[in-house]
């Protein structure tokens, strides 16, 4: 059995016949026919029924086709991995970061990466909720910094390490009517108030509400920066990562709701990679820098 025979099998099915397969693989039609016949003889199984106008897979052939696709995919993965190792240092590092993650940790690591590997290109995406892990699953990123790890069990071949949690603080504008009573406000007091909420538009939407009040009037936005600006303007209240609002809390532009009804909400964060995707030395250095930078660090 050879990879060429398996490619011929898949091509006949994908292109609807021996002639179309021969054109797709740039081989003669007789070469495709011989490859399939030799495969059938070697496996002692009839793969195609040839009575009709187009070759049709037998029941055994359908199963063998699935196996053939798996073998070809694994062979390509092995070839890609060998080529990757032959090249040594990655030409590009692709990172996707959850917006709730403190980007300063990422920038500190990237500064070291730039100095050590100046020829490596960088692609950096910032996304929300489950989108970073979905981008990693789609092999559009090498490393994902993820908020919440509920999808890890649903995605095979994923390695991850837990980082420090991110703390979401409920805040109102210092110029809002709620500011003077911020330390005493209850859920009942905030009933009917406008709550600014970041919408989850990922494929696998997180059903948890992260402190969203059922009695609130939600305004949905697509990122925390917009959410923060709306809250600062006095148009509503909401929970924002502590590291995004340190200056505003210190200046009084934002006031934390600090009654027992409005405690901070912690979201776990992780660094993650796909085990089925090549992982080079630049990615390894970035991974180690992020993990080390988070050792003993907490937002409190």
Structural class: alpha/beta
Radius of gyration: 27 Å
Sketch the major β-sheet. Answer: 5 strands, mixed
Number of domain units:
3
Question: How much helicity do the residues have?
Answer: 25-40%
CATH H level, superfamily name of the largest domain:
Periplasmic binding protein-like II
Average pLDDT metric: 87
Which CATH C-level class of the largest domain is it?
A: Alpha Beta
Short descriptors:
single chain, 300 residues, alpha/beta, Arc Repressor Mutant, subunit A, D-Maltodextrin-Binding Protein, domain 2, five-stranded mixed sheet, four-stranded antiparallel sheet, 38% helix, transcription cis-regulatory region binding
Structure, described:
Helix 1 packs across helix 2, helix 1 crosses helix 4 and helix 5 runs antiparallel to helix 9. The strands form four sheets. Strands 4-3-5-13-6 form a five-stranded mixed β-sheet, sandwiched between helices. Strands 7, 10, 11 and 12 form a four-stranded antiparallel β-sheet that branches. The protein has a two-stranded antiparallel sheet with strand order 1-2. It folds into three domains: 85 residues, Orthogonal Bundle (Arc Repressor Mutant, subunit A), CATH 1.10.10; 100 residues, D-Maltodextrin-Binding Protein, domain 2; 99 residues, 3-Layer(aba) Sandwich (D-Maltodextrin-Binding Protein, domain 2), CATH 3.40.190.290. It is an alpha/beta fold and 300 residues long. 38% of the residues lie in helices and 21% in strands. The chain starts with a helix and ends in a 6-residue tail after the last helix.
